[in-house]
Specification:
By secondary structure, this protein is of the alpha/beta class. About 40% of the residues lie in helices and about 10% in strands. The chain has ten helices and seven strands. The strands form two sheets. The chain has a five-stranded parallel sheet, with helices on both faces. Strands 4-5 form a two-stranded antiparallel ribbon. Helix 1 crosses helix 4, helix 1 runs antiparallel to helix 10 and helix 3 packs across helix 9. The longest helix has 23 residues. The two termini are about 25 Å apart. The site of magnesium ion has 7 residues, from strand 4.
């Protein structure tokens, strides 16, 4: 089996984890999480240099990841557990009282792999740029990754950070925007059109790449290209086209499943579409 095929099989387990977690507590955000299953699987299993067993907050000599759109915590937690940051069985505590797996990630609980609290949209890029600058001060050549939502770009702070990174030549950051065209209340076009993103980010001085977020091989190739373009005086952003709810047919092509849980029958249906390629928690 090729590398890509193995990674593809992991994504169906991540999808199972997402829908099972959200179903169990009848709350959480399955749509964006499902759309980003391939992104997380490829980033954590194939792209990043990281050491889950020896995790610490500083992450010196390791690549760092910041989740800015914190509501898609189910896909983040599943990926962290499945790559060894904490026991897979802990996924069963998602959103329960006193859990380390809060609905939106927090640092307070000390969950390995979580470096910022997020959920209040717009802040992750700024935090990631700070970490990128810290790496430069430490002569640490590893990279910083950050994921944002497309609706999230309606927050003004994103554009301050965008302007700052290019002006200060922060060239050890690879940002990705989940361009699923949807947000909580409808399509991004209807709620507040964010316009064509490529010319905007280019005008701000970033290198802009594009990829299909639901195509493992394309993710692998584009991340590799992005890495090859670091260190050239410009920050890098990848516009990632994805499908909200991807991999569960009745959750796709709509914003409806941004933040609602499946019922028992819908869970059964979603699981039937996604192979248990690793063991369920
Ligand atoms: C500062 C801030 N404003 C509003 C919200 C409420 N909110 C949560 S998710 C969301 C939609 C964000 O859209 P997008 O980033 O595209 O995420 P997706 O729906 O694609 O998962 C909003 C407005 C928030 N979490 N933070
Ligand atoms: Mg979106």
């Amino acid at each position: 089996m090729s590398d890509s095929a193995i990674l593809q099989r992991i994504t169906t387990q991540v999808r199972r984890d997402i829908v099972r977690m959200v179903h169990a507590v009848q709350s959480g955000h399955p749509g964006g999480s499902l759309g980003c299953a391939e992104f997380f699987t490829v980033l954590y299993n194939d792209i990043m240099t990281h050491n889950p067993k020896n995790w610490d907050m500083n992450g010196i000599d390791q690549d760092l990841f910041f989740l800015s759109n914190g509501h898609i915590s189910p896909v983040f937690y599943s990926t962290l557990a499945r790559t060894g940051y904490f026991p897979v069985k802990e996924l069963a505590t998602f959103r329960k009282l006193n859990t380390r797996l809060q609905g939106h990630p927090t640092t307070h609980e000390g969950l390995p792999g979580v470096r910022i609290s997020s959920g209040s949209l717009g802040q992750g890029l700024s935090a990631a740029i700070g970490a990128s600058l810290a790496k430069k001060l430490n002569n640490d050549s590893k990279l910083v990754y950050v994921l944002m939502g497309d609706g999230e770009l309606q927050e003004g702070q994103v554009w301050e950070a965008c302007m700052f990174a290019a002006a200060k030549k922060v060239d050890n950051i690879i940002a990705t925007i989940d361009v699923n065209g949807q947000q909580i209340d409808g399509s991004t076009k209807d709620v507040l059109d964010i316009g064509p993103l490529k010319p905007k980010w280019e005008a701000f001085g970033w290198i802009v790449l594009e990829m299909n977020g639901n195509d493992v091989a394309d993710l692998q190739a584009t991340f590799r290209k992005a890495k090859s373009l670091t260190g050239q005086g410009k920050p890098i952003v990848i516009l990632m086209k994805s499908e909200m709810g991807n991999g569960v047919d009745f959750m796709m092509h709509s914003h409806k499943w941004h933040g609602i849980p499946p019922n028992d029958e819908q869970l059964k249906n979603a699981l039937a579409q996604n192979e248990e390629s690793l063991s369920d928690y």
